[in-house]
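Input/output pair, single chain:
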Amino acid sequence: RKIKMNTQDSEGGLGKEHASSDIPSLVKKISHRLEIDEAPINEINDYVSYPRKEQGSNDIPPPFCLNVSECARMPQQVLDAAESVEFHTSCGFFPEINRAYVVVDRLLFIWNCNNTDEVVAYDGLDEVILAVACVPAKSGVFDSYVTHVLVLSTIYEISLVGMSFRGGSFDGALSLSPTDMIAVSEGTSIISICGTSTGRIFGGARNGVVFELIYTAVEGWFSSCCRLVSRYSLNWRWFQWIIPPSYMLQICLVESRQELFILDSKGNIHVLQMSRQGNLKLLSTFRPAKGSKS
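Output:
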């Protein structure tokens, strides 16, 4: 980094003699600032298996502690694909089926956590994948061998892909079966998805609306077999010109409490009560303290 310093004469307000005496102090301050800016971010290993030695009473522990039982490398096929990413990539786990996944633009890779040689790639979408979830399939909608559905969202739509396992065990080979279950997201994008053990699927849209994806085996008289239904909105439509709108960042749920949590762009956490009828009721909102970083 190059730092340019200008000194003025006495007529400009800072004499050369005065300037030269302040330069060492100024350089020291700038060097200290650069050292702080260039300090490396703590590696994940810094928090693994803590504490590693006897800790004194004055030692400050890290913010969290991890215990690693086993490490596994990502499949080479996935690493090679990730090098060619153009727009978006993300990764995560489906612990209920013992699988990990990586999204590379419009491609999805899923593999067994215990067997990285078993990689399943899905390329059935034309647009970049924004969010992914694995949710138990509703009974009576798909064939009996489809135990879960893969929920995929793009900028325009959200779709379901059937998931089945050889031998009916999660240790068996995974097969993906495209379905006709597709719902248009109507001018917004679903960026976060979660589901319940009974197959209910919720999606958080960028514009602050929480949708529920409803799907059935047959179409109704006035409804599609797969559609998005608005359940809650962070923003009051008529007051958005007065109050800046909040944007959705993430949703998750605690099924044992029947509560759904929303994290918005202002750092607020909204707690919603789920009901069997489908509606979501706001219970409380936690706002960050003033002066804290969201």
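The helical segments are 16-37, 76-82. Confidence is low (pLDDT under 50) at residues 1-19, 50-55.
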